Amino acid sequence: MAHQALEDWVQEVTQITTPDSIHWCDGSESEINTLYELMVSDGTLTKLDDHKHPDSYLARSDINDVARVEGRTFICFAQKEDAGPTNNWMEPTEMHAVIDPLFEECMQGRVMYVIPYLMGPAGSAMSKVGIEITDSPYVVANMRIMTRMGQIALDELGEDGEFVKGLHSTGQLDPDQRYISHFPDENLIMSFSSNYGGNALLGKKCFALRLASVLGKREGWMAEHMLILGITSPEGKKSHICAAFPSACGKTNLAMLVPPQEFLDAGWKVETVGDDIAWLKFGPDGRLYAINPEYGFFGVAPGTSMETNPNALLSCRANTLFTNVALCPDNTVWWEGLTEAPPDSAIDWKGNPWTPESGDKAAHPNSRFTAPAGQCPSISDDFENPAGVPIDAIIFGGRRSTTTPLVYESYNWQHGTYLGATMTSEKTAAAAGKVGELRHDPMAMLPFCGYHMADYWQHWLDMGERGGDNMPRVFHVNWFRKDSEGKFVWPGFGDNMHVLKWIVERCDGKGQVNETPIGYLPDPATMQIDELGLDPNDVKVLFSVDAEEWQEEVEAQTDYFQMFGEKLPEGIRAELDALKSRL
Ligand code: OXD
Ligand code: MN
Q1: What is the pTM of this model?
Q2: Are 139 and 132 within 8 A, CB to CB?
Q3: What is the pLDDT of residues 219-269, one digit of tens each?
Q4: Ligand nearest to the CA of 142
Q5: Pairwise CA distance, residues 164 & 161, whole Å
């Protein structure tokens, strides 16, 4: 039996957008092969070398469509107050008056694809169904990798299940007509004039974070911009960590971390459950459990190499869609950082001939690979576990050249919530705007929280009240500290394992700490990092708290909180006061 509300919506959209034909995506092999053939023949995709990159393709976007557009992303509640000061807001009828006309007859001459997709493992009480309607076969191909698409979603939906509606059209890729609009009270996303991942793959940021964060607040769970990883100690104890970092700050690298040889020899193991989004819910035992709602990785290509992240590279060898990387003469791909020596020549991300001498980037700094998560060598058996994994620790992190030490632990959940609320990071290429500028990015959710940020913090505090002693411990890390010459002082990547080890030890009630005004710092003497050969001055920088820098930090935090006025939760205000007095 058909799902009447779904049929009705598809019919309604058909009447508005007037496509030439309608295709219901079943997610099958033959369907995607037909789409790939179509996109190769019309020049949308280039097929890569079948031996080195089986069933993989390269796409080049429009040059003005390479990142999320936060300035054109809107949260449309009836009241501005509900969207809060960190979101762009438009009243729903007003936004409909702007965006609905853009969809009129926009699919004329095009095929309309109806994509049923499931966010989360089949059979999980935490999973949810979305339907995306789009006129972009490129979006269909990405959604097939990033979500569980087709019949599996219709089976979950049944005859009367709830679903999130997502309507997308490429339009003419006119930046002035670009709108990424969310209507939480209609369970609806409307996205026009961009094909970039975060703007167009509506299951990802739009549903799994913005709308899901609203659903989480209403239903008592959490949708977070977090990776999920499992760590097994030499004693065989398995712990799970969720970690939130702003976009393009190494989440994928941490999620797929390969421990240094001495850790492997000792019996440590790291497994990947997710690299970008976590949905967290209380389990029957009162602990927080996390699932990864996605089915693939939409990873940043530049900087990814066999040295920095072999698991990511192995994940995107086959069945992968690359966007805006460079094309080598032998039909393989290249990006800055993939190999030390660049190719002698290539076609750059704009489609122009390129040589290393040209001085331009061959790949766009936000170029991406879309790859099936199941291909990751470190993927966890729990990736498909409908119950999710119990979370022992939550990590917040930013990209900070100064002030923030390598790692510290919060005193408790409320203080941990404060560490998340005061996260700051230097801007990256994942969003349009000036790279390097410092910005507040609470819980790495600034671009993704679908409602008032202060209400979101209150939700974190409420979850803590509910979970009590069962809540995960909360930590803060900074892999990006620099010395006075601007050089990174921490090696990062696999060596972040030293920090993860300390974190799981802390969760076990072990590990040496120094109590400081900002939280518990590890004692570097007990971290077994001698073999890293760090300069003693750098060790000092990584493991200490500079009172002057923190005075400035706390002033910046005080200023930042001004915009939330009376809405700032009491628990956050109390932590600010406590930090001030400790300093
Ligand atoms: C992403 C992002 O693509 O955060 O994951 O921008
Ligand atoms: Mn992300």
Answers
A1: 0.97
A2: yes
A3: 999 999 999 999 999 999 999 999 999 987 889 999 999 999 999 999 999
A4: 1
A5: 10
| DSSP-assigned states of every residue in 32-83 | HHHHHHHHHHTTSEEEPPTTTSTT-EEE---TT-SSB-GGGEEE--SSHHHH
Mean pLDDT taken over the chain: 96
Among 249, 316, 376, 449, the active-site one is 249
Please tell me the distance from the alpha carbon of residue 521 to that of residue 511, in angstroms, as a whole number. 10
Residue among 276, 369, 423 whose CB has most ligand 1 atoms within 8 A, to mutate: 276
- From the CA of 298, give the closest atom in ligand 1: 3
pLDDT of residue 249: 87
CB 334 within 8 A of CB 305: no
Structural domains of the chain, ranges and CATH numbers in brackets: 4-65+72-219 (3.40.449.10), 224-295+383-582 (3.90.228.20), 297-374 (2.170.8.10)
Amino acid in position 231: I
Environment class of residue 235 by beta-carbon count within 10 Å: exposed (0-12), middle (13-18) or buried (19+)? exposed
Which residues does a 6 A CB cutoff place in the pocket of ligand 1?
A: 68, 197-198, 247, 276, 298, 430
Residue 37 confidence class, pLDDT cut points 50, 70, 90: very high
pLDDT tier at 1 (50, 70, 90 boundaries)? Answer: low
Other beta carbons within 10 Å of 426: 17
- Nearest bound ligand to the CA of residue 196: 1
Instruction: Give dist(CA 426, CA 438) in Å, integer.
Output: 4
431 Cα to the center of ligand 1, angstroms = 8
The pLDDT value recorded for residue 118 is: 98
CA of 245 to the centre of ligand 2 (A): 8
The DSSP call for residue 329 is T
Atom of ligand 1 nearest to the CA of 430: 6
CB contact at 8 A, 301 and 369: yes
Q: Per DSSP, which regions of 247-365 are E strands?
A: 269-274, 278-282, 288-291, 296-300, 321-323, 326-327, 333-334, 346-347, 353-354
56-84 pLDDT tens trace? 999 999 999 999 999 999 999 999 999 99
For 470, the token pair is 């069962």
- 249 has catalytic annotation: yes
**Are the beta carbons of 426 and 466 closer than 8 angstroms?**
no
Q: Which ligand is nearest to the CA of 278?
A: 2
- Which uninterrupted H or E stretch holds 190? strand 188-192
Sole residue written with tokens 């030390």: 340
Structure tokens of 118?
A: 């499931």
Structure tokens at 416: 């941990």
pLDDT digits (tens, 9 = 90+) for 467-510: 999 999 999 999 999 998 899 999 999 999 999 999 999 999 99
